[in-house]
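Hi,

Apologies if this is the wrong queue. I'm a grad student, and the batch job for chitinase from Linum tenue produced an output file that my downstream script rejects. I'm not sure whether the problem is my script or the file. Here is the sequence I used:
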Amino acid sequence: MGKLQLLSATLAIFLSAIAIPTTFVDAVAVGSVVTPAFFNRILSQAGTGCKGKTFYTRAALLTAARAYPRFGNLDTALWSKREIAAFFAHVTHETGHFCYVEEIARNTYCSPSSQYPCAPGKKYYGRGPIQLTWNYNYGACGKANNFDGLKNPDIVAKNAVIAWKTGLWFWMKSVRPVVKQGFGATIRRVNGGECNGGSPAAVAARVKYYRAYCRSFGITPGPNISC
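Support response: The file is valid. Your script probably expects a header line. Output copied below for reference.
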């Protein structure tokens, strides 16, 4: 056996002995699922006067997603696509099809915290694709993504990459752990006050978007999709 044949045989034996995890085999590239056509269909439904229509971009999303490589990588291609569909269902609802960058009712949302104290004169109302809210979330998210969320919360409404990172940070921290419980569980994590009759119309809207995006991705929505 020649050296090249020996090397090939050795490599084949080595690879056959490795148990490659399904998270590697079935991972999906976010950019291959969130195509320009998919992204633009959502964006096109925002009014012409919406700030988010020019603020939220697919390029900024994909840049931000590189900081969260496990997003869209949930054991199988099916669950990975369900996660992406769920994320965009909530983003669509929270931003009005990418219309809103900042919450309309701009309250202070300051909770006493020794770790993440509110900065004088700053407000921590909803900003970004998941509408990041409260000082402790701005503080923790900023620390994880290298910006000062306490002293400069407004950067979330000015830098599109940071805005997407806040959405992905909240998602991976608070929502990702329950994705496999069904879309209904993700609603509880994003805005649990809507569940159990709190706001049936809001729940129905989120579910409608989720079903539509699952159809776009060619997958079934799975069980327990409401709350």
